[in-house]
């Protein structure tokens, strides 16, 4: 779990305080109205700001409660945003949104496993020539992401119980339960059982710091030391602002849903681009945090963020969408197409080869970024 800087207090005029309130006020003012273009732009900016604010306040609360509940709070907050965006668009979008959940989750996997991982390795390799990380923890995270992706996104294409690339009812229930179980086990391993596998490797010449019973060995790195936990009052304020931000995000997404779909259709782009837009919006805070950690020579934290985001996107979003599908009209298409399966298979192969040595250079970073660029290009030009 990443630790936000300066979380001991929340100034009244801080953007993290003002943006959620402004977004909620804007939601009340624009709900059910036809909006001019200028107002639409303002609403989109407030929507993006509310997403960033929600993740920030989730981090504050998570830092207060500690692990393993901290990671769960972060994951649940991001999942609420992602699921809220998906469901609001599916409700208003008709038949073109049957594949929206699949497109969004797959976009999140490709952007995290290639875009964020590639960017993190690139920034570290440019500074240190070689990015060094823990292959045990990173490999376990990658294996979990790939397993979740195959169970939830690949298997529906090949099952025969129902026509098309959709699960039958029992199959969807099994996929949802399996996803939750895998995600829960990973959180336990990462935060309780084998925490040391997911911590930055010590650098030469740095002395070990004494650890308590059952705690992983730490090193006197200075920059890696955690900030003190925020006081209870700050955490409670952040929790309230988190709820406000989440309500604003879901509401503003509903307001902008028709406009987003009309803009995509008007540009002649395939419906899958809507899923890419949602994934980019949701993953923006994680991308910025991963880049920041990579610049500080903490590539292990960057990889944890990237793969953890991919894992939460599948392991929590798919079960939530499965429950929501009970009230949604139309089929829930989760199976990937041939091109997407090829890209996922190539991502798996490249990811394994990158993780196994525990070291990566500019070449591996560039390969991952090339895969991300290929996915984005093919999403707009299938």
TrEMBL record:
The chain crosses the membrane at residues 12-31, 37-57, 69-93, 105-126, 138-159, 171-189, 235-253, 265-284, 305-328, 334-355, 362-380. It holds the Pfam family Na_Ca_ex. Keywords: Membrane, Transmembrane, Transmembrane helix. Residues 41-190, 238-380 form the Sodium/calcium exchanger membrane region domain. Residues 215-227 have a biased composition (Basic and acidic residues). It is found in: Membrane. The keyword Transmembrane helix applies. Residues 208-227 are annotated as: Disordered. It comes from the Bacteria. It is a multi-pass membrane protein. InterPro entries: Alkaline_pH_Ca-Antiporter, NaCa_Exmemb. PANTHER family: SODIUM-POTASSIUM/PROTON ANTIPORTER CHAA (PTHR37958), SODIUM-POTASSIUM_PROTON ANTIPORTER CHAA (PTHR37958:SF1). This is Ionic transporter y4hA. It comes from Micromonospora cathayae.
């Amino acid at each position: 779990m990443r630790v936000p800087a300066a979380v001991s207090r929340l100034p009244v005029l801080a953007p993290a305080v003002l943006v959620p309130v402004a977004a909620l006020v804007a939601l009340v003012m624009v709900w059910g109205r036809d909006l001019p273009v200028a107002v639409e732009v303002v609403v989109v900016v407030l929507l993006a700001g509310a997403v960033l604010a929600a993740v920030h306040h989730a981090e504050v609360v998570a830092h207060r409660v500690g692990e393993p509940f901290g990671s769960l709070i972060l994951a649940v907050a991001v999942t609420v945003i992602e699921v809220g965006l998906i469901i609001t668009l599916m409700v208003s979008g008709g038949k073109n949104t049957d594949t929206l959940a699949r497109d969004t989750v797959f976009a999140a996997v490709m952007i995290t496993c290639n875009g964020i991982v590639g960017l993190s390795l690139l920034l570290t390799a440019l500074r240190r020539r070689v990015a060094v990380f823990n292959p045990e923890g990173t490999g376990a995270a990658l294996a979990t992401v790939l397993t979740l992706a195959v169970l939830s996104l690949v298997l529906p294409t090949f099952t025969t119980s129902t026509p098309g690339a959709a699960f039958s009812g029992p199959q969807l229930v099994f996929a949802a339960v399996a996803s939750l179980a895998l995600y829960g086990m990973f959180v336990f391993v990462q935060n309780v059982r084998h925490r040391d596998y997911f911590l930055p490797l010590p650098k030469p010449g740095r002395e070990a710091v004494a650890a308590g019973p059952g705690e992983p060995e730490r090193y006197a790195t200075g920059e890696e030391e955690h900030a003190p936990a925020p006081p209870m009052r700050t955490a409670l304020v952040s929790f309230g602002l988190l709820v406000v931000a989440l309500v604003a995000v879901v509401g503003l997404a509903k307001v902008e849903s028709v406009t987003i779909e009309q803009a995509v259709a008007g540009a002649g782009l395939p419906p899958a681009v809507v899923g890419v837009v949602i994934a980019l919006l949701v993953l923006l805070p994680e991308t910025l945090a991963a880049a920041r950690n990579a610049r500080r020579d903490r590539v292990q934290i960057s990889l944890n963020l990237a793969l953890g985001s991919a894992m939460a996107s599948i392991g929590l979003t798919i079960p939530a969408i499965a429950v929501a599908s009970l009230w949604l009209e139309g089929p829930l298409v989760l199976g990937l197409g041939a091109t997407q399966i090829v890209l996922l298979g190539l991502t798996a192969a490249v990811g394994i080869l990158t993780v196994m040595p525990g070291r990566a250079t500019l070449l591996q970073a560039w390969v991952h970024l090339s895969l991300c660029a290929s996915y984005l290009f093919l999403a707009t030009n299938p």
